[in-house]
Sequence to fold (144 residues):
Amino acid sequence: MKKIELKFENEEGKTVTFSLDNPVEPVDPVAVSEAMDAILSENAFFSSGGDLVAKKSARIVERNVSEIEI
Amino acid sequence: MALAERIDSRLQLTFEDGTDPISGDQIYKTKSFNNVKIDATADQLLAVTETLVPLQQLVLYSVKRNDTELITED
Fold:
């Protein structure tokens, strides 16, 4: 199970994360950066620490689960 | 007289996520984004949706906005 996480900084300098399942791979860093720019410019979201003000980072996260027989 | 005040708003995207192998029915998967500004417009939400959808593989089925209103007595 993979996710893409888009991390933004809010007015208090804290991190706000948007995540989406089933990311397109290989990731196009330009498209990711542009999507984050659009989220910032639309300014349609708030957070407990104010508006989103800057892009911080983006990453693909994969979770591996192994069932243990007990 | 009752007053309704919008106190919470969220963006909900529904994606097509394959079909049920037995019934053949379409399966949907939803993804919600909290913390939408109360005064955000449909145009803003559509613009955000259009930039997020290409980052993932599923086909977008619908875009919804879920608002919560607090109802009080006047």
Notes: The interface with chain B takes residues 4, 18, 20-24, 31-32, 34-35, 38-39, 42-47 of chain A (CB under 8 Å). The first helix of chain A runs from residue 29 to 42. Strands of chain A lie at 2-10, 15-21, 46-47, 50-62.
